[in-house]
Fold these 3 entries.
Entry 1:
Amino acid sequence: MAARLFLFVQFEFPWELGPPDGRYVVRAPGESEPQHVLVLNTLGASPRAARGGSARTRRLRSARAVEPLPPPSSVAIARATIVDPVPLSAERQARAWLDGLDAERELSKAAGALNRALYLHRVASADPFVREVSPPQALVARAGWGEGEQVADGQWLHARELAAAGRGRRRGRWPGGRAHSAALRSSERLAQLLGGRAEPLLCEELVLRARLDLDEGRLRHAALALQVAYAAALPELRAEAQQALAVRIGELTQLQNGVQTQARVAGEHTDQLPDEEILRHATERLEAALRARTAYGLEPGERS
């Protein structure tokens, strides 16, 4: 009998993701058939395990003197393998899948499945510091196939490394200079914020939370987060009295009623979900207003 082959996408990250190592069957709510099998392995020594002992023991150890130039600490590598639970019976099918692979789409799908598990772990463990991931953060991303026991251990018969979208930008290959200038503005603003010459707006963090929920498909969360982001953004932006932002503030004012309506839908505990198109448009327009606020030099209220 021919071996059954399973397709997978795999990431390796230079930190521990949170959930314990193991195999997790992932199903959609109310469904009996699995969507994915998630396999988590920690490669190398876990810093948490290496520290070991009680909190008091760790405090005592931390009081010992160290060398002026200590060697770098070892890090654990988290390997996350997202497996398609539907097997193939022929290697030619697996090769055809890999040859025709849309890397960006498959990496995005796999990251979405992993992020759902991390979100649920954050809720189950009540640990707010568990965080989602993105493909460009991975040390390496792979796609391939293997037999059942192989992929269940994060291994394979054949795999290919994939380039994650955005990785080129992280290495300095900037298309047309536009993204490069945006990065320079980001670095300049970071220096302002760290140096105490400016302060972030409340809405800047709030819209980031709404964006994450929106991109991960958590529409109820996104609607409620965006309502709070708009409630903070409009008075904050008006208080700065930037004439250049007047049109954008007017646009956000018009969008706020729709955002509030979607937040009400999110809180009604019915089968109806908020309208993703309305949420996405309102999020993009608030993000655009915040970019415009800092796009041309120093932001309002900067202290000399």
Entry 2:
Amino acid sequence: MKRLDEGSTGTCRGHLGTLRGYELHILSREQPCDRCRDFRNAYMRKQRKKWLSDPEVREHDRIMRRARERARSELTRKYAAEYRLLVRREVARELTQIAEGEEAP
């Protein structure tokens, strides 16, 4: 992944130093600029602190994780052939990137 200079707004597109700016870097398959990365790190620290201090947030997170896992399992069973095809396609994509010397996202 390429590294942008500090303060670069090329990929951020007006969202420099925000979560959206960070996401735009990731979607562009590049390392986030320093300001976007620093903002996301600070945001994640705040979220972890909130998660550790609030039992309601932890319970909601637990419920959502379990629900997502059940839904994922159900979809995998319901669409088994499509799922296997998608997995094979993604493995092939990863192997192609490795063979071409690119970093995986």
Entry 3:
Amino acid sequence: MFKVNFIKPLGDRKGFTLVELLIVVTIIMLLVGLVGQNVFKRLGKGKQGAAKAQVEIFGAGLDDFRMDMDRYPTTQEGLEALITNPSSEKWDGPYLKKQVIPKDPWGRPYVYQSPGTHGEYDLYSYGRDGSVGGDNEDKDIISWQ
């Protein structure tokens, strides 16, 4: 009987052909292109969510400060008053778990003003673009909404 063997046994193969490598590289590039877009979209949303959560945590600390001191920290005292006594006997802090005021997810300090224009205090981050306003990832994260 005549036997035709188109596929070599694994022991006889010495490597991949150029065509096989090109196919694998093409598939990987397509996957990176499709998955990469979704990952970067979610990364931006994640930073927005982290900034919102941090503003909420600061808000809780500011409210605790007010309960003890009968006022919010002044603009000059800033958020540092939540972790460092601004020389008052009423202060019963620190009001945050961490002993450092973190920067926003884009590496800039949060903006704190008291009295604020939207309430007793205004606390916000300018978002990814670092300027007032913006949409999507550039949208400002604010405490008064």
